[in-house]
Amino acid sequence: MVTTRTVEYPADGLTMIGHLALPAGVDRRPAVLIGPEGMGLSDVERRRADALAELGYVALAFDLHGGRYLGDPEEMLARCMPLLADPDRMRGIGHAALDVLHAEPRADPDRIAAVGYGTGGAIALELGRHGVDLRAIGTVNGLTTGRPGEAARIRCPVWAGVGSEDPIMPRAQRDAFTAEMQAAGVDWRLVVYGGALHAFHHPSVDHTVRPGVGYHPRHAQRAWLDIVDLLAECLPVTD
Q1: In the chain, what is the straight-line distance between the N-terminal and C-terminal CA atoms, in Å?
Q2: What is the pLDDT of residue 205?
Q3: C-alpha distances out from residue 165 to 37, 122, 168, 192, 197, Å
Q4: Homologous superfamily, domain 3-235
Q5: For residue 206, what pLDDT is reported?
């Protein structure tokens, strides 16, 4: 039976409020960081953490905004755009979440993957560029490029997913991302989901969303299964 608890920890000058999900048993298990879209941690990511715990992983859905969910697009952009332009801040948020996993007795510190969506995906990539020993990185809608040469520090496979009609991650951005990964010698994959917009994986919410953002249920399920397959390949759960 999966157990969950809220965890508070400092990062980016805030008190972050993450969601930790633990699988049944008492043994050490591989662990997964789950980073949310720019709006922040929601029940969508909490449910994903719980689903990974059902599969046998210790999963931490980490926070971006000190316990707040930024439903107003302008407020979200005002916080996330400077964050996305500052790799050191992104790494600080990612490392703080990693510290929570390292302090959890059930989490195997030598078997950790990072999966993120949008801003959370950018943070997962920055952990890799910082040389963190991860077993896999997955990023959806977060095909960001980093500072020159730093992608060579990524030591694990990188899987990326994006909607073909995503105006925030257009073809030029996809091409820049894949060129960076290829030049760095990274084991990378890119899946382009036909007809999908930005945040296609995120169920519809009741607040105003920006143009170019929309839910695509079939591709959302496919992207989730692709991430589960990535983890099964790179971070298998062994009983």
Answers
A1: 15
A2: 64
A3: 18, 19, 9, 9, 5
A4: Alpha/Beta hydrolase fold, catalytic domain (3.40.50.1820)
A5: 55
